[in-house]
Design a protein that fits this description.
2 strands, 167 residues, Four Helix Bundle (Hemerythrin (Met), subunit A)
Length: 167
Amino acid sequence: MEPLDRHYLQTVIREFELLKRQAEGALEQVSDEQLNVSLDPESNSLAVLVKHLAGNMRSRWTDLFTSDGEKPDRNRDGEFEGTLTRAELLNLWERGWQTLFAAIRPLTAEDLMRTVTTRGKPHSVLKGIAVQQSHYATHVGQIVFLAKHLAGSRWKTLSVPRAPRSG
């Protein structure tokens, strides 16, 4: 039987990979112009959501054990402004995920209970993983919802399709 820590870390990695694939599958179904569309002034566009996730990943997972998870050069508010091309967004997206996976894949059982800080507050690596996975899942759900709305009848499901409706 696999040790619990190894099982946990492998599960976390698979779930992060799933979130990445779901968002990418949604983003592929919208036009370049639709990437920067928001439903109303208080809503985020797909581009904003991608920028925010990528910025968070870079900040949280770079130098995990040696610096605060909120990097001084991060412009969080700026993540919610402006427009980017698909190529620019996908570049940010890939760099964010590469940073996350480079930090998580080598973790050991002992690392899970090590202390890291975010915004000056100490917590375990295990808690940091749980908090970020929840955060990313929330935003990936928003990406899927918005992309599905924008794609309309062109939408191809990313999960188990609904059963055909009867008569």
